[in-house]
TrEMBL record:
Transmembrane segments: none annotated. Residues 16-61 form the GRF-type domain. GO terms for molecular function: zinc ion binding. Keywords: Metal-binding, Zinc, Zinc-finger. InterPro entries: Znf_GRF. It comes from the Eukaryota. Residues 111-140 are annotated as: Disordered. Coiled coil: none annotated. This is GRF-type domain-containing protein.
Length: 140
């Protein structure tokens, strides 16, 4: 059930038996999907506690067609919500994979840099030991 609005008239705020403003809410049950009702502000759909037990249906009953359409939409909404949760988990997993791959790329870049530095140092050491032929001073 979801809070929609506080039932207020221009003259006075209507209150339930325990003095709280009366709230207009929507039913989410299969028997009365989308049907609006007035209840105590303290109504808790999970525990079925209604504060002072103030409860009144707001509109007349739905037609069978309306009930069918609303139930179908509620079912589709639940399926889409479920699919969204699966996609969120997949996205989370992909982000973790991306992070691991990024760390691996960084590690490989450091290794490549180290290898390049070693290669450069090795060439410099090799050249400073006089192991390179000097061109132009060769005698035949």
């Amino acid at each position: 059930m979801s809070d929609r609005s506080c039932d207020r008239s221009s003259e006075e705020v209507k209150k339930c038996y325990c003095g709280h403003p009366i709230y207009v809410k929507k039913s989410s049950t299969m028997d009365d999907p989308g049907k609006r009702f007035k209840s105590c502000k303290l109504y808790n759909p999970t525990s079925k506690m209604r504060g002072c037990n103030y409860f009144r249906w707001y509109y007349t009953t739905l037609t069978e067609w309306q009930r069918h359409i609303i139930n179908k939409m509620n079912l589709e909404n639940k399926m889409l919500t479920s699919e969204t949760e699966v996609m969120k988990e997949e996205l989370k997993s992909l982000k973790e994979d991306k992070s691991l791959l990024r760390m691996e790329v960084d590690k490989l870049k450091k290794k490549l840099k180290s290898v390049k530095e070693e290669t450069t140092k090795s060439k410099i050491d090799h050249n400073s030991n006089g192991n390179t032929p000097v061109r132009g001073n060769e005698t035949e």
